[in-house]
Amino acid sequence: MTSHLPIRSAALLLLLHCACAASVARGLTIGADLAIVREPRPQQLLLAASGVSNARLDHYAARLDALAAEYAPRDDPQTSPRERAAAIHAYLHQHVLRGKYLASASDLGDVLDGGPFNCAAASALFLTLAARVGLDARPVSVKGHVWCRVGRGAETFDIETTCREWFAIAKRDEHLPTAAVPPAMAEHRHRVATGRELSDRAFRAIFHFNRGVTLIRQGRFPAAAAANRQALALDPACRPAAENLEFAQSHAAG
């Protein structure tokens, strides 16, 4: 369920998980190639942060809209939030998340085309459908991982969006003490206790950060530095992005 992608060099551990857009000349700079797009939609910003090229933004934004429109009639607002969330989760794993889990797979275009997915991409799709049907959901993160939280107060529950059988597993273990549950569930409970709820900007930062990790792996250090600057512009609290920016800059200079 985690999205860790360790890369060790000079004792630096790079972790997958974080996205950004900077205002430029009354437009917005988005995407890896830094093209100018005026008044981009939220879906376009997220898609660009995930690695979708500017030439394909409209195509995949339309795909996201179509996905949400197709799912909306299936939602039953008379059922509980947990049942509604479980229905979204099941729909995504049956119809969209057809590839395998891969920690580095943040590109939402690839995911929509049936490719592999990671926790950030799966959470983005869940949040897209939840927003369309008015279900209160937001992203939550710890270093190296992101998932979704639904509801408020005593009705709050968390969803590991990459786990196809999550709702069955959560129901099985819900009344067991942490000492009695499998290690993966114990780890999930620890995350829930320590996780940070993310704003839309901080969630996009996750995708820019992930793209930066991929670029570092490819040896494209100037581009990796740019991706991490974008992540930090959206979420200054993204400490791994600051570490990776320093790493990328030092290697670009060398």
Structural write-up:
The two termini are 36 Å apart. The chain has a 4-stranded antiparallel β-sheet, with helices on both faces. A 3-stranded antiparallel β-sheet has the order 3-4-5. The protein has 254 residues and is α+β, with helices and mostly antiparallel strands. It is built from 10 helices and 9 strands. Helix 8 (200-217) packs parallel to helix 10 and helix 9 packs antiparallel against helix 10 (239-253). The chain has one domain (8-253).
Could you state the order of secondary-structure elements as H and E?
A: EEEEEHHHHHEEEHHEHHH
Oligomeric organization of the protein chains: single chain
Large-scale geometry: globular
What is the CA-atom radius of gyration, in angstroms? 18 Å
Low-confidence stretches: 1-14, 18-37
Beta-strand proportion: 5-15%
Strand order of the largest sheet: 8-7-6-9
Brief overview:
The protein has helices at residues 42-50, 57-71, 81-95, 108-112, 119-132, 166-173, 183-194, 200-217, 221-234, 239-253, and strands at residues 8-9, 12-13, 22-24, 27-30, 35-37, 137-142, 145-150, 157-159, 196-197.
Would you spell out the secondary-structure blueprint of this structure?
Elements lengths: L7 E2 L2 E2 L8 E3 L2 E4 L4 E3 L4 H9 L6 H15 L9 H15 L12 H5 L6 H14 L4 E6 L2 E6 L6 E3 L6 H8 L9 H12 L1 E2 L2 H18 L3 H14 L4 H15 L1
Antiparallel strand pairs: 1-2, 3-4, 4-5, 6-7, 6-9, 7-8
Helix pairs in contact: 1-2, 1-8, 2-5, 3-5, 8-9, 8-10, 9-10
